[in-house]
Amino acid sequence: MKTVLIVDDLIDVRLSARIVLEAYGYHCLEADHPDSAITAIRQNQVDLILLDMNFSQDTTSGQEGLAFLTQLKSLNYTIPVVVITAWAKIDLAVQAMQYGACDFVEKPWQNSRLLEAVQKLLPVKVNNKHIETSPLAFETNNKQLLEKARRIAKTNANVLITGENGTGKSMLAAYIHRHSQRSAQAMVSVNMAAIPENLFESELFGHRKGAFTDAKEHRKGRFTLANDASLFLDEVGCLPIGLQAKLLRVLETGEYEEVGGSTTLKSNARIISATNADLNKLIEQGTFRRDLLFRLNTLVIELPPLRERLSELLEFAAFFVESHAKKYGLAELTLNEQAGKKLLSYHWPGNIRELSHVLERAVIMADENTIGAHDIVLDTQGEESGTLPLMSLEEAEQKLIIKAISHFDGHVVKAGEFLGLSKSAIYRRIEKFNIQMKEI
User: Fold this and answer.
1) Looking at residue 57, what is its pLDDT?
2) Which residues pair with 207 in a beta bridge?
3) Do residue 254 and residue 317 come from a single domain?
4) Where do transmembrane segments lie in this chain (predicted)?
5) DSSP state of 160
6) ω before 135 within 30° of 0 (cis)?
7) Is the CA virtual torsion 223, 228, 234, 238 positive or negative?
8) What global pTM score does this model have?
């Protein structure tokens, strides 16, 4: 069981995070101050830290949180940190990332956003299966797609899954793994966009103790962990061009060396990758290697956006309503005709993920056993007008960034991907426009 240390001076905040995370298979420890957090780290195996940025010193500067991040580094701890703060100024979040934090979540958070931030860095297993944060609605929809996925699953060929954000690429990857001959082993996942360049080899191939300053112990890489299993490379299109050759070598030969090691190891991991990017376009732009694409796309599955699958939408909706009702211990709920029409009239830019979130809220807010149109809250801002107000390109860019971050529940990296921006590019624009979370 993976352990998350929650560092916050407010007991109700710690309890709130604990309830969410323990429900999904994490073991939680609590600390009310950075000093007690260091004690907890020394006495326990901690796999991830949720860190408030402000304690007794003041309420807004975040200096205590930054000092804690600095202390972690000086003590040679490499525990991933997710920053949590009620005063989530973007410049402070950027500072925290520069000090070593991996992500940030604004308080009061949405449980799905908190869980997403943690699971991205720290997936958990229960009974040798990964817990899935979203119900696998594929089980009841698109029989032709599933038949293709099951045929593919029986092979050991590499698979590339393409499609817009929110179409269910990670769910389909898990489905393929579960129907493969490797299903007895857990699928290993890694978000390629989240790996810092200086930790790429260590993350994927592992390192020996003493290989570099923070290498306090021997660590196995993802290719080692995925031997005889499936390795899911999410957001593979975000991998910097300078790192692609290192990935290509192991895909071509199965061979790699741990950082600081001299022995050549081999992995027979089956590669399932996913991207929302047009890799052929990236090849034309010189930011993606053609030979790497050939290694990844032995078999390709394209997931169409939800707006092109409206014939399946009500089946998806019924599945999510039932799933969310069970999750919250509620009585059986159904969608009435007006609610269904409202769902079908929307364009669903966030695809299946957005549908799930909309129906989760509807399930919680429904007064009776029937979900009506008034329970369905959609982001229809700007849909009623076919024209855009006249504004400068900079104004339009700023408004799009704010809207995208809001749409993805404060997840800056996902907003950037949706807009076609890299992680560093969207943070640069956020700083340029001085965008603050309170604006979103």
Assistant:
1) 53
2) 219, 259
3) no
4) none
5) E
6) no
7) positive
8) 0.56
